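Duplicate of #3305? Posting structure anyway:
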């Protein structure tokens, strides 16, 4: 690729970048969450919405989560879907580091208590001023549908 030399060239370059940039970031706390969370990616892709999917744990990779969330808006993301089980801090920590809308997906896992109520309460009970929109347990498809509605605003 040659260096752009005029404003028109620069605009064309930026437009090209935007075309390829994902609009929705999907993150989850563990590889073990992937079989459920990839349904959000499928739903978005079926709707023609560009997305990316990443594994990062609020507890095991806190620096990675902070960096991802802080850079999200600059990278062109407009909504972040975050799924986690157990003490599901990931959606809240992402919301603490970005002003983009964050949709939390409570997940069941091998050590789940009360059918995912542990993760549900961890995600939905955010302090005032740091909201996470929360969908039902193991329901990433609804998170994708909500992301689509937010993008349509
Ligand atoms: C959470 O702990 C993850 O989101 C996952 O749902 C659960 C179990 O993680 P693994 O032990 O399978 O990595 O942080």
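Output from current build:
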């Amino acid at each position: 690729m040659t260096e752009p030399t005029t404003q028109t060239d620069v605009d064309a370059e930026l437009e090209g970048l935007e075309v390829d940039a994902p609009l929705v970031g999907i993150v989850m706390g563990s590889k073990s969450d992937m079989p459920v969370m990839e349904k959000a990616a499928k739903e978005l892709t079926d709707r023609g919405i560009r997305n990316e999917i990443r594994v990062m744990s609020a507890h095991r990779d806190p620096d990675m989560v902070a960096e991802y969330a802080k850079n999200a808006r600059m990278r062109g993301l407009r909504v972040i879907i975050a799924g986690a089980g157990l003490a599901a801090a990931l959606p809240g920590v992402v919301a603490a580091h970005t002003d983009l809308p964050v949709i939390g997906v409570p997940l069941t896992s091998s050590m789940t208590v009360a059918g995912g109520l542990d993760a549900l309460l961890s995600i939905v009970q955010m302090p005032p001023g740091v909201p996470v929109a929360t969908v039902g347990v193991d329901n990433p498809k609804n998170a994708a549908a909500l992301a689509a509605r937010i993008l349509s605003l």
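Confirmed duplicate; merging threads. Strands lie at 24-28, 51-55, 79-85, 102-107, 133-134. The mean pLDDT is 94.
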